[in-house]
Amino acid sequence: MEYGEIIARHMGDQYFYDTMMTLENLANLERVTPRFRFNVLRDLDDNKFVDCAIAANAVCIVSHDRDFLPLRAIEFPKVAVVDTVEFRGLLFI
Q: Which of 71, 23, 24 has its CA nearest to residue 46?
């Protein structure tokens, strides 16, 4: 929901609703329920993204949020953090 709040704040409630409905109806959407909370970040609200990334065996977390930078120095659980420029390079675009 945090992404939704940001979308609504910057683009309006209707855009938020349309975006969330589109995402929820994607054929390749996989809901993940983390079974463990690692609590590796100082910003407790961001830990849910780390937990989901680990549970989903994600390649990386894409963010410009500096609060995720400490993940680069943590050996376990290993979660890569990239910004949108680095992510675009991963996609070979």
A: 71
Q: How confident is the model at residue 93 (pLDDT cuts 50, 70, 90)?
A: low
φ, ψ at 80 (rounded to 5°):
-75, 140
Please give the Cα distance from 45 to 50 (Å, whole number). 10
Structure tokens at 56: 């989903």
**45, 76 Cβ separation under 8 angstroms:** no
pLDDT tens for each residue of 31-73 = 899 999 999 999 988 999 999 999 999 999 999 999 999 999 9
Q: How far apart are CA 79 and CA 73, in angstroms?
A: 10
Q: What is this structure's pTM?
A: 0.75
Q: Which residues contact 75 (CB under 8 A, 6 or more apart)?
A: none
Residues with Cβ within 8 Å of 24's Cβ and at least 6 positions away in sequence, in order, are: none
